[in-house]
Amino acid sequence: MKTILSSETMDIPDGVKIKINARVIEVEGPRGKLSRDFKHLNLDFQLIKDEEGKKKLKIDAWFATRKTSAAIRTALSHVENLITGVTKGYRYKMRFVYAHFPINASITNSNTAIEIRNFLGEKKITAMQFFDRLSVPCFEVCCAKCMDSSVLFQISSVSYDTCYMQVRKVDMLDGVTILRSEKVKDELVLDGNDIELVSRSAALINQKCHVKNKDIRKFLDGIYVSEKGTVVVEE
Amino acid sequence: MPFKRYVEIGRVGLVNYGKEYGRIVVIVDVIDQNRALVDAPDMVRSQMNFKRISLTDIKIDINRVPKKKALIEAMEKADVKNKWEKSSWGRRLIVQKRRAALNDFDRFKLMLAKIKRGGLIRQELAKLKKENTA
């Protein structure tokens, strides 16, 4: 059944400027500007002034089905996230978890990329060039605990000069910075304004460190999100 | 961007489809999500689908389902007829009706009048152009 009108409103704090034009919302605040486009929703977005003069955002859905009425509150939540992103920012903390092999991470590119080495003791080697034109394809030295290499083929008179270590590299998304926390051991801190980008960057790091072909209940190594908070913390 | 003309009791509308095409009616009650009870001074009160009604800016002050006399009084008080005929929408409809009812002689007279008007406009424009370049 279609509800004739369902609507919800939300307060807009002072210090935040909101512009709405054709379902594209732009929020501007002390930490910067964010914009989000809701053109996939069929809702009316309006900025209204309350009786006491407070600014509010009102979202209407006319003759809405159940799913459309549900979208009203989610759109409001997205706008709320935009507002806190632009006033307080988002800070996601991740911890390295390892049993035996310390995860070695180095932050490059002026805090916008991270390289992960020695995850589960792996040494993945690719592209070894023996002679000028002959390049031998890679073989993997596998294993976490016992360093046994399974050599798949052999070539006489092997001498290699260059051997490149394959490293796990993750680029942060736009506007997200990453740094190694000083006081806490093995912690990463991701900062940014847009919650979608910050949480997705955290997910990318987490996914780069999945354990393969092992019992994951036993091999618990990885980089996990430990805390989701804001940059500016209010007491 | 939000809606300004709402379906409510007392909203004046224009029928845009069907037998009553072009008639001004007042929404007197809402039957369900799609239909309204609609009334006008010279018509029997009947139901009509909202899709057949175009809402106007005019609204009158009545109770739900008033008696015919009360409806006519309210329409006089709000002066619906004059407001409609003075509004740009109403004027446009009147002109369209007149144009549709022209006979050939009227169309001939209209053509002459248009030519004359065009000539006058061009004269004035030429005068202004001369003043500007001079």
From TrEMBL, chain A:
What is one cellular component GO term in this UniProt entry? cytosolic large ribosomal subunit
Q: Which InterPro entries match?
A: Ribosomal_uL6-like, Ribosomal_uL6-like_a/b-dom_sf, Ribosomal_uL6_a/b-dom, Ribosomal_uL6_CS2
Name the domain of life: Eukaryota
Which UniProt keywords are present, listed alphabetically? Ribonucleoprotein, Ribosomal protein
Output the Gene Ontology terms for molecular function. rRNA binding; structural constituent of ribosome
Location of the Large ribosomal subunit protein uL6 alpha-beta domain: 12-89, 168-222
The processes (GO biological process) annotated in the record are: cytoplasmic translation
Q: Which PANTHER family match?
A: 60S/50S RIBOSOMAL PROTEIN L6/L9, LARGE RIBOSOMAL SUBUNIT PROTEIN UL6 ALPHA-BETA DOMAIN-CONTAINING PROTEIN
The Swiss-Prot or TrEMBL record describes its family as follows:
Belongs to the universal ribosomal protein uL6 family.
Q: What is this protein called?
A: Large ribosomal subunit protein uL6 alpha-beta domain-containing protein
Q: Name the species this protein comes from.
A: Salix brachista
UniProtKB/TrEMBL annotation, chain B:
Gene Ontology MF terms: mRNA binding; structural constituent of ribosome
GO annotation, biological process? ribosomal large subunit biogenesis; translation
InterPro entries (alphabetical): Rib_uL2_dom2, Ribosomal_eL14, Ribosomal_eL14_dom, Translation_prot_SH3-like_sf
Keyword presence, Transcription regulation: no
Q: Which UniProt keywords apply?
A: Ribonucleoprotein, Ribosomal protein
GO cellular-component terms in the record? Answer: cytosolic large ribosomal subunit
Q: Which residues form the Large ribosomal subunit protein eL14 domain?
A: 45-117
* Pfam families (alphabetical): Ribosomal_L14e
Q: Which domain of life is it from?
A: Eukaryota
- The family this protein is said to belong to: Belongs to the eukaryotic ribosomal protein eL14 family.
PANTHER family recorded: 60S RIBOSOMAL PROTEIN L14, LARGE RIBOSOMAL SUBUNIT PROTEIN EL14
Q: What is this protein called?
A: Large ribosomal subunit protein eL14 domain-containing protein
Native source organism of the sequence: Salix brachista
Q: What is the lineage of its organism?
A: Eukaryota, Viridiplantae, Streptophyta, Embryophyta, Tracheophyta
